[in-house]
Each structure stands twice: as structure tokens, then as C-alpha cells.
Write a structure and sequence with these properties.
By secondary structure, the protein is an alpha+beta fold. The protein has two domains: 3-242, Alpha-Beta Complex (Lambda Exonuclease, Chain A), CATH 3.90.320; 246-276, no CATH class. It contains eight helices and nine strands. The protein has helices spanning 3-26, 42-61, 67-77, 88-96, 147-162, 184-197, 221-235, 247-251, and strands spanning 40-41, 101-112, 115-127, 130-139, 171-177, 204-209, 212-217, 263-265, 272-274. The strands form two sheets. Strands 1, 2, 3, 4, 5, 6 and 7 form a seven-stranded mixed sheet that branches. The chain has a two-stranded antiparallel ribbon with strand order 8-9. The longest helix has 24 residues, at 3-26. The model is unreliable at 268-276 (pLDDT under 50). The structure holds iron/sulfur cluster.
Length: 276
């Protein structure tokens, strides 16, 4: 590609992202959305599929720090260990130049039906200007990722498409690990390498790597669109928050004390009942 044309193309895409951020900062959409937010975070949307009531309580009373959230935050801060720091222009320049590169915490932003959706995926691999892999790391005792993890990865994939990327080759991996990692950088390289070497014959696969399991999928973008539409129904005041129907989620919920929709486990039958 001609150098000037390349710079123009790059600048145009970066300009669009920056102007969307300006719009968000100016609060253009505030009046339309619950809690006067000017954008919807992908993280919130994913959590809506865990328990929407929990998202509402979080928005009203803020984050409740638990040991679990602290551990998760510490591990996440190490995801980019050993990677070069770069600004938005440099990242886009490298992506559009066709280089093969990993980008951690890349800001993904696009509008869906007029509403800005914002997120940061843990790790993305680009090659020839296309995103090939999206990695989401979850530090947890769970053996299977909840639906919300897949929702999150699907919506990041949709955002990449809305940002103008060709996502025809894109796959994602939700990586579950429960152990504290001595050398995160080495571990990250090992996981990425093993996941990429796995040949995906079907729509999905699970790869076991030492202390973790990677759940690989091709993102279903039609599903992501429906999930976004459903989630926006709440933010746009078209319906009230829907609480979970799974009592075991309430059992470990940090907001249970203030929740009027909590479910309790019935010891004799292990079925759930509403406490109201
Ligand atoms: S207590 Fe249950 S219903 Fe209430 S916010 Fe927590 S998980 Fe949701």
C-alpha cells in the first residue's frame, strides 16, 4: 500500500475511535441510558448474563471488593507482563501494516444502534491486518466458564467487526486457571502457543494445558447481536433488571444483603425459592 494512503487509512480509523471517545466524554447519550452513563461497558453486559440484578446493585452501590475479585485483579494486571507499551496510533499503525502482533488490553469501541459500547479484551493476535485470536483469562476455581464469559468474548468479536476488521478467521479462547502463576509471561506464551496449535475441527473444543483449560470457539456474531439487543433493553429503560433463577449464584453474591430478589437454597431439596 502506498505510504500516504496507508497513513490516511490509519488516521481515519484512529480519528473515528477518538471522536467516539470525545462523544462519550461529552456524555451525548447520557439522557437515554440508565444511571446517566454515556456508554455501556462490555463487562457490564457480560455480567447481565450472570445476574442482571447484580449489575444493577453494582451500579447503585459500587464495587464490593472480595478476596476473589482482588486475586482476579492482581492476575489481570500481569497479563501484559513483558509486552511493549504503545499508544493508540502505534498499535493501529502496526496492525494495519500487516505485522503479526499481540495486543493486550486493546480498547474496543463502536456504536450499536446508536449506543457506544466499550471494552478491553485481554489479548488479541493480529496478522495481515486481521484479528486471528482473542484470549480472555479467568482466574477462578470454576471448571467450566459461565455463559457470561462467552457473551463477553462474542461481543468483543462483534466490536472488532463493527470497527472495520475482517473477522472471518477470528477464534476466541476463554482460559480458566485457578493457580497463582510464578512466571506469568512464560505461562502466557505456553498457553497461547498450545491454543493456536490446536486445530479446530468442530465449532468448539477444550484444550487442557498444565494448570488450565482453554475453551475455544468460533464467535457466533448473530448470537452476539441478539445478546446486545437484549442487554440494551435494560440500559434503555425498556424493562427492569432480571434476577438470576440460580440460587447457587446468590449464595456467593457480594450484594446478597441488599438484594430484594435473592434466592436461598432449600437444604432438603436443593431447589431454590424466592425469599420475598
Ligand atoms: S443475591 Fe442473587 S439475585 Fe440478588 S444480585 Fe446476587 S445473584 Fe443476583
Amino acid at each position: 500500500m502506498d505510504g500516504n494512503l496507508f497513513m490516511e487509512k490509519m488516521s481515519d480509523r484512529v480519528r473515528k475511535i477518538l471522536s467516539l471517545y470525545d462523544e462519550i466524554k461529552a456524555g451525548v447519550n447520557k439522557s437515554e441510558l440508565r444511571f446517566n452513563v454515556s456508554y455501556i461497558g462490555v463487562y457490564w453486559i457480560a455480567d447481565q448474563f450472570f445476574c442482571e440484578k447484580q449489575v444493577e446493585l453494582y451500579m447503585k452501590s459500587g464495587d464490593v471488593q472480595t478476596e476473589k475479585t482482588k486475586i482476579g485483579k492482581n492476575f489481570h494486571e500481569g497479563i501484559s507482563a513483558g509486552m511493549e507499551q504503545a499508544n493508540l496510533e502505534k498499535i493501529w499503525c502496526d496492525i494495519l501494516s500487516g505485522s503479526r502482533l499481540y495486543v493486550s488490553n486493546m480498547a474496543l469501541v463502536a456504536k450499536w444502534k446508536g449506543v457506544p459500547i466499550v471494552g478491553r479484551s485481554d489479548l488479541l493476535l493480529f496478522s495481515k491486518g486481521k484479528p486471528l485470536w482473542l484470549f480472555e483469562f479467568k482466574f477462578t476455581n470454576m471448571r467450566i466458564p459461565p455463559d457470561s464469559s462467552h457473551v463477553q468474548a462474542r461481543i468483543y468479536s462483534l466490536l472488532l467487526k463493527l470497527m472495520g476488521f475482517n473477522v472471518s478467521m477470528l477464534k476466541y479462547a476463554v482460559v480458566l486457571s485457578k493457580d497463582k502463576l510464578e512466571n506469568f509471561e512464560t505461562w502466557r506464551r505456553l498457553v497461547i502457543d498450545k491454543v493456536q496449535k490446536h486445530i479446530l475441527f468442530k465449532e468448539k473444543a477444550v484444550v487442557k494445558i498444565d494448570n488450565c483449560r482453554a475453551f475455544i470457539r468460533k464467535p457466533n456474531l448473530d448470537k452476539a447481536e441478539k445478546e446486545l439487543d437484549f442487554a440494551l433493553g435494560y440500559w434503555m429503560n425498556r424493562r427492569e433488571a432480571i434476577p438470576t433463577k440460580n440460587a447457587s449464584k446468590c449464595k456467593s453474591c457480594a450484594y446478597i444483603t441488599n438484594c430484594d430478589s435473592k434466592l436461598i437454597l432449600n437444604k432438603s431439596s436443593s431447589t431454590s425459592v424466592n425469599s420475598d
